[in-house]
């Protein structure tokens, strides 16, 4: 990626924030009250992998608004796939990250909108419909929560670290992930599983989690939150198929002081077999 060829990342960030905020407002209106989501619900890869009418409406809004604000640029969305034609700039969209939480009424879900250039995220926004909080970042320009700069935790002890994770929809893989978590729990302060990868990555950026890892995420799950974590100073590893003892499809973000120890603990616990 040649920096001189980059589009204006501040403009990309502004577009991500604008579109993400509008989609989040729509998502919250469609959610309604405190009961379970009453709209249309379908399933995808398994019976536990759900997609709601709000997911589809959110992505439609994001695509339409990006077409207005950034005409001609390609979009990859979790629900609608990609309309890219080899363009170097690609918008990667998760219309609701944490759909199961959304379905049940748990407020930990978000809209993620990220701009990637040559496969690398250069600007992003993650917006929480329930709270209205806006996380955003530009590559080389830092990360913020509602305009306040973020910084990853300064912890240096894995045994005193709070670590987030997540599980697959397929029961067999979820069981292997749970086994890995059980082993890692012996090496950390505690584990958290909230159900939104984007927000877990943002939590690492804020120091609310000392680290986060998960196998099997889609690009839309990590595209936005990973940049926010990285720009806050977290050590980042994205899925790349490499054989380094962690598994080629792991996403990991950690405070610098524990990154190596966490990676080694995951290797010893059998992360590559998950």
UniProtKB/TrEMBL annotation:
Coiled coil, from the record: none
Catalysed reaction equations from the record: a myo-inositol phosphate + H2O = myo-inositol + phosphate
Pfam annotation, one family: Inositol_P
EC number: 3.1.3.25
Keyword terms: Hydrolase, Magnesium, Metal-binding
GO molecular function per UniProt: hydrolase activity
UniProt cofactor(s): Mg(2+)
UniProt family annotation: Belongs to the inositol monophosphatase superfamily.
Cited PANTHER family: INOSITOL MONOPHOSPHATASE (PTHR20854), INOSITOL-1-MONOPHOSPHATASE-RELATED (PTHR20854:SF4)
Name of the protein: Inositol-1-monophosphatase
Species assigned in the record: Allokutzneria oryzae
Taxonomic path: Bacteria, Bacillati, Actinomycetota, Actinomycetes, Pseudonocardiales
């Amino acid at each position: 990626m040649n920096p001189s060829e980059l589009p204006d990342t501040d403009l990309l960030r502004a577009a991500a924030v604008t579109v993400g905020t509008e989609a989040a407002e729509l998502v919250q209106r469609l959610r309604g009250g405190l009961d379970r989501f009453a709209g249309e619900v379908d399933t995808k890869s398994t019976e536990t992998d759900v997609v709601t009418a709000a997911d589809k409406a959110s992505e439609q809004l994001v695509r339409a608004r990006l077409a207005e604000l950034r005409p001609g640029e390609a979009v990859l969305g979790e629900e609608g796939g990609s309309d890219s034609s080899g363009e170097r700039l690609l918008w990667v969209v998760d219309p609701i990250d944490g759909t199961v939480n959304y379905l049940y009424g748990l407020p930990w879900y978000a809209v993620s909108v990220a701009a990637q250039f040559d496969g690398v995220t250069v600007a992003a926004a993650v917006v929480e419909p329930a709270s209205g909080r806006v996380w955003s970042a530009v590559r080389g320009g830092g990360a913020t929560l509602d305009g306040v700069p973020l910084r990853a935790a300064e912890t240096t002890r894995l045994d005193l670290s709070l670590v987030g994770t997540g599980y697959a929809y397929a029961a067999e893989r979820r069981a292997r992930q749970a086994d890995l978590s059980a082993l890692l729990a012996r090496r950390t302060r505690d584990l958290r599983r909230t159900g939104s990868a984007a927000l877990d990555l943002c939590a690492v950026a804020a120091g609310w989690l000392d680290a986060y890892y998960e196998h099997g995420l889609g690009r839309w799950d990590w595209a936005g939150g990973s940049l926010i974590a990285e720009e806050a100073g977290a050590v980042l590893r994205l899925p790349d198929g490499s054989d380094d003892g962690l598994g080629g499809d792991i996403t990991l973000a950690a405070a610098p002081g524990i990154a190596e120890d966490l990676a080694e603990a995951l290797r010893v616990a059998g992360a590559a077999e998950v």
